[in-house]
Amino acid sequence: FGNKVRHGTVVYLAGEGHHGLRGRVAAWKQHKAVTGLDMWLSRHGLDLNTPAGFQKVVDSIRALPEAPGVIVVDTLHRFLDGDENSSVDAKSMLDACGALIHEFGCSVVLVHHTGVSNEAQHRARGSSAWRGALDIEISVIPGDTIEIVQRKSKDAEEAVPVFAELQSVPIKGWMDEDGDQVTSAVLVAGQEPVKAKKDSPIVKHQKLFENAWWTSGAEDIDGQPYLTRAALTRKLESDGMADRTVQNMLNPSYGYEGQKTAETCTPKTPPPFRVGVWGYNCGLGVFTKSASNCLN
Fold it and tell me: Which of 208, 217, 210 is nearest to 240 (CA)?
């Protein structure tokens, strides 16, 4: 991905998905054409924020031939004894991570889930204490193209987003019980997707007005589109809008002076754009049969 890195041993504390992790490691080694990997993978999870659990991790890491440069805890939930919504339990876990940093002079990466609701997709699930204690927070946004976004940087500027993709790799010599090739995935650099420009509210109203005109039979008078209030009402109601919403959207525009005749709506100046403004604002040159039906 074009970033500077420093080689170091990784201790990966995996609380779940061990079978899949074996495949990921094998696929990565094959993709990078390497035979060895300075990585140690735990067999199971434990309660890292308890004295017994913490000591077991420390003893196991001390027994390794080389101290780690990074310890990954995956996932936080699998290694936490307590409630991730509790600031007290969060502190005990963060204290355990801080003790690992002090003991081995390494970085600790906590893998955690985001919230469930759309509003919580950009932040870690649970207590705000998690984010408050982090030096760096990174979000991984799934999709056809994966977006990796830095949400917090305590002592430096936030990095620009990184885009990546998962590439399928058939693992040599790995076959399942049916004799089919086993595959796994590796992360490769991707391109930033082109995001479609969202329509403004006025453009949405224009399209809705035009759809109503076509639905009503695309009538015209003297070569100009013609749409009755009743036809527009039917279109709004067929789209599932509530009666009150329909009436609000049919209200005349406020704050502009226009000349209303029995046959046409002829604004002297363009009216202000707002929700519920139809006719002139939609660029359709709407004609109505009576002044009472004038949509402007």
Answer: 208
